[in-house]
Write a structure and sequence with these properties.
The complex is a heterodimer of chains A (251) and B (253).
Chain A (H helix, E strand, L loop, with lengths): L1 E12 L2 E13 L4 E5 L6 H8 L7 E6 L2 E2 L7 E4 L11 H12 L5 H14 L14 H14 L4 E5 L7 H18 L3 E5 L2 H7 L2 E5 L6 E6 L12 H15 L5
Helix pairs in contact in A: 2-4, 3-4, 4-5
Chain B lengths: L1 H27 L7 H6 L1 H4 L4 H32 L1 H14 L8 H8 L3 H25 L3 H9 L4 H35 L8 H10 L3 H29 L11
Helix pairs in contact in B: 4-5, 4-7, 4-9, 4-10, 6-7, 7-9, 8-9, 9-11, 10-11
The chains are: A alpha/beta (251), B mainly alpha (253).
Chain lengths: 251, 253
């Protein structure tokens, strides 16, 4: 479980200090997947940067499984917007990076886990390629593999599907949700697409304009149902969210 | 595939240069410019003349100079890239000394460090180290913060950040720079070997020249060029292995 209490972030830019985020109070339940939607520049990415340990200078408290957030001791999977693959490592070295940094030895059980994930994401044949020889969709699947292989306590994704073309995107989203349903990792992802939020988020967090705070958290009854996009509820939910957007991200 | 291409390149270049040389020598017809055939006919003699010792002496000076310059240069470059305070201290020194022709320090170095290998190697280091510092500093500063984010989120240590991101990111530029440095280092070597030594290819060429032994002088020039070429090829091979990720992969499937 992830508990965020009175989290606020202030940037220093030249002589100005910019209040970018918060205060935010939020509890993410174990084994759930949350989507964050909000206007651009509302601090969505800032929030993920705090949770991934990249920003360490913040006010308030972040507790992961009752312990203050500390990436060295905890397992946090992070998929940045452009996938964060290291260009000088091949696919295999990239997806094993999480284990290597954590100093985790690969035993039979981990190997089975790895093989299962690679198989599921259909990247077993790409092991020896370098990122520049991969398509966007392939890169993204490698990034997902890297995150899942370390079996993180918390998985963070920053607009993970936004740089893919629409066909690849739907396919990637479905692959992701199938894998997620098997592993049930506690997940938080940022998106600017209402469609994506409804398809992949069990709970939808709507954020306000800068400095971002939480406007509303919506339970998504459509999560994990068949043919989501054709359901009439889908239209209702997305027009409700659009309504919030029209009012300038307020209720 | 790559080595075959390289061999073809070498043979083509070698053939063409020798052809031009041959034509000029025949047309000009002076004893100071023998034809390549005459020079190569002397190849047998030269092998008896401790030429190996000369080559080794030169290689020792050049490679130690390059290696020391790399170690010091990378260390200082990293310091400057990562700490504003070091930049404040070292920046002006690097800036001021960068355009100074360091070869003018040879007499001073020889007075301080003697006529032996020390002063020769130090001069090579002095000339190369500033380029290494600047290239290291600039390429480290060009690495985007996002590249490190992944390692940060995994809780990676400073060493892990260096080994997984910084080093592989700066290697291509360092190697490109090293290639230029080899040429520079050999030129300086020739200059330093004019003084205070009985060994080295520079000495060998200048000695043959002063004795008007043109055959050996030309052979010396050819050999030092080949030494440079071999060093060049070695960097190529290292680059191929280390920078695989930059090359276009063979098409699969």
């Amino acid at each position: 479980m992830l508990v965020i209490k009175q989290l606020a972030v202030t940037y220093k830019k030249a002589d100005e200090s910019i209040h970018a985020l918060g205060p935010i109070d939020l509890t993410i339940q174990q084994g759930e997947i949350y989507a964050i939607i909000g206007p651009s520049g509302c601090g969505k990415s800032t929030l993920l940067s705090v949770l991934s340990g990249v920003i360490q200078n913040y006010e308030g408290q972040v507790l992961l499984n009752d312990v203050p957030l500390y990436p060295r001791e905890q397992a946090i999977g992070y998929i940045p917007q452009h996938f964060g693959l290291l260009p000088w490592k091949n696919v295999e070295q990239n997806y094993l990076l999480s284990l290597k940094i954590k100093g985790i030895k690969i035993n039979t059980q981990t190997q089975e886990q790895i093989d299962y994930i690679l198989e599921h994401l259909n990247i077993s044949d790409l092991k020896h390629r370098f990122p520049k020889d991969l398509s966007g969709g392939q890169k993204q699947r490698v990034a997902i593999a890297r995150a899942f292989i370390m079996n993180p306590q918390l998985l963070l994704m920053d607009e993970p599907f936004s740089s893919l073309d629409s066909l690849t995107r739907e396919e990637a989203q479905e692959l992701f949700i199938q894998l997620w349903n098997k592993k049930k990792l506690t997940t938080l992802f940022v998106t600017h697409s209402i469609e994506e939020a409804i398809f992949m988020g069990k709970k939808l967090i709507i954020m306000s304009d800068c400095p971002g705070t939480i406007v509303e958290i919506i339970d998504n009854p459509l999560f994990n149902t068949e043919n989501i996009r054709e359901n009439t509820e889908h239209l209702k939910l997305s027009s409700y969210i659009r309504g919030i957007i029209k009012k300038g991200w307020t209720l | 595939m790559k080595s075959k291409k390289r061999l073809v390149m070498f043979l083509q270049g070698f053939g063409l240069i020798n052809l031009i040389w041959y034509l000029v020598a025949v047309l000009w017809n002076k004893s100071v410019l023998p034809t390549p055939l005459q020079v190569y006919a002397h190849m047998g003699d030269i092998l008896n003349q401790e030429i190996g010792m000369h080559i080794l002496a030169s290689l020792y000076r050049v490679t130690s100079g390059i290696i020391i310059a790399l170690i010091i240069g990378i260390a200082i470059g990293l310091l400057m890239a990562n700490s504003g305070q070091w930049t404040k201290v070292l920046g002006p020194v690097v800036y001021l000394t960068y355009p100074t022709p360091k070869t003018v320090f040879l007499p001073i170095l020889m007075l301080i460090f003697g006529l032996g290998n020390g002063s020769k190697i130090i001069l090579i280091v002095l000339i190369l180290v500033f380029q290494v510092i600047v290239v290291t500093r600039d390429s480290v500063q060009n690495i985007s913060h996002e590249t490190y984010d992944m390692i940060t989120s995994l809780g990676g240590s400073k060493t892990q950040r260096f080994l997984n991101v910084t080093l592989p990111a700066i290697l291509p530029e360092l190697l490109t720079n090293l290639r230029v440095s080899v040429g520079t280092a050999l030129s300086i070597l020739f200059f330093t070997e004019a003084y205070g030594t009985q060994y080295g290819m520079g000495f060998y060429i200048l000695d043959a020249w002063s004795r008007m032994d043109y055959m050996n002088m030309y052979l010396g020039i050819i050999i030092i060029s080949l030494v440079g070429f071999v060093l060049f090829i070695m960097i190529d091979i290292i680059e191929e292995h280390v920078c695989k990720w930059k090359q276009t992969a063979p098409q699969e499937g």
